Amino acid sequence: MELQTQIRKYRKTLNLSQEELAEKIYVTRQTISNWKMEKAIRIFTVLFFLVLYSASL
């Protein structure tokens, strides 16, 4: 599954906008957008999912 698909899936599961998700994980909305466009370094993928799962617990 592509990164952009994973982000959208989990964002929709948590019923969050890009901006709301960005606030929860302490990044900018533009960072979320870059992740969706796969412009960011892959290490941020790991960070994203670690924070997302901890935020949903």
Overview in brief:
This protein is an all-alpha fold and 57 residues long. It has one domain (3-56): lambda repressor-like DNA-binding domains (434 Repressor (Amino-terminal Domain), Orthogonal Bundle), CATH 1.10.260.40.
Summary keywords:
mainly alpha, 4 helices
Note down, in words, how this protein is organized:
- The protein has 57 residues and is mainly alpha-helical.
- The chain has one domain: 434 Repressor (Amino-terminal Domain) (Orthogonal Bundle).
- It has 4 helices and no strands.
- The protein has helices spanning 3-13, 18-24, 29-36, 43-56.
- Helix 2 packs across helix 3.
- The longest helix is centred in the C-terminal third of the chain and has 14 residues, at 43-56.
- It is globular.
